[in-house]
């Protein structure tokens, strides 16, 4: 989404739900993900004399009511906010353009951001900020037609890698493309093309879904680091389980096309059960596990949307089942809401950059 008032450029990027196959995207796997219209980040770029990155009044920790307030906020939100993400994407964008002989004009700008994506809840709040910022840079430097849509998720990921955040491509692909996307990150594609195979799917294939989340920020990099290390060390259990998770997205693609929601129910549950075996309950966190389990106690299918903090739910019993679950979530202190799927926002210029139009 773009707003251009005078010289101001503003872009939104939506939260995303890793629907099937996550987190195998971090491991040359496959996923199906979609953008969630319930939450978004927006970034504003205004031309200015100096290049300025504006700290967010509440998400960047620079001003406090008191010393104890400083400590409380550090304990709940960690040390970092969005400023480092904006700085990192500026660097990655600059270097990519330089390496690819894309000339950038001399003008400077002021970048600021806002977000209503619940912080660090596995809804990809981090990459939403980076994705919206990249979109602003593409327009400010008028290079949207020169940077392929397929390449953009990797630039967004590189900005986070630059900061040492362990993450995968699926969030960024979903946020760049928008809508529902099937993604294949096989080693072969990644090595030959530098990106995966991304196939947009009809959002109408999804059944009504619900979201459960809790104010319980968890650092996705920390959650991922042990499993990632085991995978790098060639751990057979992690390798074979990750392949099973990737297969869930492959099977899920057909299941969605056929609207076979009974099978979808089992795929969603199977996806979380494999994650639980690989990561272990300590890494996933008791509260996150309880969000999955409360849904299952009411006969729904449930799994993490990302690395933890939010859960996507399918209620085979329809609205009456969802209402019972909503009451249970409210009593447990969790937020429960219907999922609004956000369609793709790519424009003609973006589509024109794609090597293969799926
Ligand atoms: N809502 C937010 N506001 C500001 N910065 C954020 C926000 N969410 C994430 N970040 C930044 O991104 C980093 C990585 O967040 P991450 O654990 O990936 O969260 P998410 O699951 O929302 O993507 C954080 O350490 C922080 O620097
Ligand atoms: O573990 C996952 O499912 C995802 O974790 C990260 O996303 P986040 O929203 O930060 O939890 C990671 O970036 C994704 O690639 C994983 O699939
Ligand atoms: Mg993230």
Compact summary:
The chain has twelve helices and eleven strands.
Any descriptors?
358 residues, alpha+beta, Alpha-Beta Plaits, 2 domains, 11 strands, 45% helix, binds ligand LRWZ45AK, magnesium, EC 2.7.1.43, ATP-binding, glucuronokinase
**Ions and ligands:** adenosine-5'-diphosphate, ligand LRWZ45AK, magnesium ion
Run of helices and strands: EEEEHHEHHHEHEEHHHHEEHEH
CATH topology of the largest domain: Ribosomal Protein S5, domain 2
**How many domain units?**
2
Average pLDDT taken over every residue: 93
Q: Describe the main β-sheet briefly.
A: 7 strands, mixed
Cα distance spanning the termini: 21 Å
The CATH class of the largest domain: Alpha Beta
Radius of gyration: 20 Å
How many DSSP helices?
12
Category from helices, strands and their pairing: alpha+beta
CATH architecture of the largest domain: 2-Layer Sandwich
Shape designation: globular
- Strand fraction band? 15-25%
Task: Please give the share of residues in helix.
Answer: 40-55%
Low-confidence stretches: none
Number of strands: 11
Structural description of this entry:
- With 358 residues, the chain is an alpha+beta fold.
- The protein folds into two domains: 2-19 and 32-180, Ribosomal Protein S5, domain 2 (2-Layer Sandwich), CATH 3.30.230; 205-338, Alpha-Beta Plaits (2-Layer Sandwich).
- It is built from twelve helices and eleven strands.
- The chain has helices at residues 67-77, 83-99, 125-140, 152-162, 170-177, 187-193, 220-232, 236-257, 261-284, 286-297, 318-332, 348-352, and strands at 2-5, 8-20, 30-48, 52-53, 108-115, 180-184, 197-201, 210-213, 301-304, 310-314, 335-338.
- The strands form two sheets. Strands 1, 2, 3, 4, 5, 6 and 7 form a seven-stranded mixed β-sheet that branches.
- Helix 2 (83-99) packs across helix 3 (125-140), helix 3 packs across helix 4 (152-162) and helix 9 (261-284) runs antiparallel to helix 10.
- The protein starts with a strand and ends in a 6-residue tail after the last helix.
- The model has no long low-confidence stretch (mean pLDDT 93).
- The ligand O=C(O)[C@H]1O[C@H](OP(=O)(O)O)[C@H](O)[C@@H](O)[C@@H]1O is lined by residues 18, 22-23, 25-26, 122, 124, 126, 167-168, 170-171, 220, 304, 306-307.
- Residues 96-179 form the GHMP kinase N-terminal domain.
- It is an enzyme of class 2 (transferase).
- Its EC number is 2.7.1.43.
- This is glucuronokinase.
- Belongs to the GHMP kinase family.
């Amino acid at each position: 989404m773009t707003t251009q008032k005078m010289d101001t450029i503003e872009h939104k990027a939506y939260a995303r739900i890793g629907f099937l196959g996550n987190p195998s995207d971090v491991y040359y796997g496959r996923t199906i993900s979609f953008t969630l219209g319930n939450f978004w980040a927006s970034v504003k770029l205004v031309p200015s004399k100096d290049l300025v990155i504006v700290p967010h009044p509440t998400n960047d920790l620079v001003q406090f009511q008191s010393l104890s307030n400083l400590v409380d906020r550090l304990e709940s939100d960690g040390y970092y906010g969005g400023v480092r993400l904006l700085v990192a994407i500026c660097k990655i964008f600059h270097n990519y353009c330089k390496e690819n002989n894309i000339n950038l004009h001399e003008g400077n700008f002021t970048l600021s951001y806002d977000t209503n994506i619940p912080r660090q809840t596995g809804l990809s709040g981090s990459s939403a900020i980076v994705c919206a910022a990249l979109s602003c840079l593409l327009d400010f430097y008028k290079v949207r037609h020169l940077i392929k849509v397929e390449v953009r998720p990797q630039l967004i990921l590189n900005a986070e890698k630059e900061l040492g955040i362990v993450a995968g491509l699926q969030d960024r692909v979903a946020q760049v493309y928008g809508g529902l996307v099937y993604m294949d990150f096989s080693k072969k594609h990644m090595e030959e093309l530098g990106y995966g195979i991304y196939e947009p799917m009809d959002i109408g294939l999804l059944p009504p879904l619900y979201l459960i989340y809790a104010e319980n920020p968890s650092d996705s990099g920390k959650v991922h680091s042990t499993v990632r290390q085991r995978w790098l060390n060639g751990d057979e259990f992690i390798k074979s389980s990750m392949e099973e998770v990737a297969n869930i997205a492959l099977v899920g693609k057909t299941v969605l096309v056929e609207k076979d929601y009974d099978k979808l129910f089992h795929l969603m549950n199977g996806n979380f059960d494999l994650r639980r075996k690989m990561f272990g309950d300590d890494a996933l966190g008791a509260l996150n596990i309880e969000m999955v389990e409360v849904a299952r106690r009411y006969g729904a299918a449930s799994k993490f949307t990302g690395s933890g903090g939010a859960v996507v739910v399918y209620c085979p019993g329809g609205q009456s089942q969802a209402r019972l679950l909503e009451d249970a979530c409210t009593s447990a202190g969790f937020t429960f809401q219907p999922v609004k799927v956000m369609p793709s926002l790519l424009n003609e210029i973006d589509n024109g950059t794609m090597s293969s139009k799926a």
